[in-house]
Write a structure and sequence with these properties.
The protein is of the alpha+beta class. The chain contains three helices and eight strands. It has two domains: 33 residues; 115 residues, TATA-Binding Protein, CATH 3.30.310.
């Protein structure tokens, strides 16, 4: 009597291997699509709210610039940027004055080290040096930058600038303060 061939369990090893290589890219694609979808949902869910927009528009931008804030996906609030020929110290003074007049509490001004600037005596400094005054970008520096932060209630107001070649780029952000 001839014994029948043993019953095969599952697909042959070669077929299983092919199936695995077919399923693996589909799983990777599915994970990527889920992550992209979460990022898009996060961006839509954290747009510039009416309260943030109202705080943003309480007073005009520097030199009366009319700017309509957009969505700040990273900071989850409102953001707008503009260029001015005004020096950074004038920009920061303007925002310090306006914020103070509208009940915002300003923090110390932070100025980035001028590009190519010498390191002060006493060793290394952090990425930005905290100052209690307005920027003092040296006329000889190729680039200087800084930020001014303020808070009121559950919101934060941030003005960042970068100045080079007689032009100052300004970015203004308003968002719900973290931890509120």
């Amino acid at each position: 009597m001839i014994n029948p061939a043993p019953a095969m369990t599952g697909a042959p090893p070669n077929a299983r291997s092919k199936r695995r290589w077919f399923v693996l890219p589909i799983l990777v694609l599915a994970v990527v699509l889920v992550l992209v979808g979460m990022r898009i949902f996060d961006a839509v869910a954290h747009t510039c709210s009416d309260e943030e927009r109202a705080a943003f528009l309480e007073f005009p931008a520097y030199e009366g610039a009319v700017i309509d804030p957009g969505n700040d996906i990273e900071a989850r609030g409102c953001v707008a940027s503009f260029q001015t020929s005004g020096p950074p110290k004038d920009v920061i003074r303007y925002y310090e004055r306006q914020l103070g007049q509208h009940g915002w509490t300003t923090q110390d001004f932070e100025e980035g080290a001028p590009e190519g600037g010498a390191e002060p005596a006493g060793g290394s400094l952090p990425a930005s040096v905290v100052l209690a005054a307005v920027p003092s970008c040296a006329p000889s520096s190729a680039l200087c930058s800084g930020t001014l932060a303020a808070t009121r209630g559950g919101f934060s107001f941030n003005v960042a600038f970068e100045a080079a070649g007689g032009s100052t780029s300004v970015v203004v952000r308003v968002n719900e303060a973290s931890g509120s």
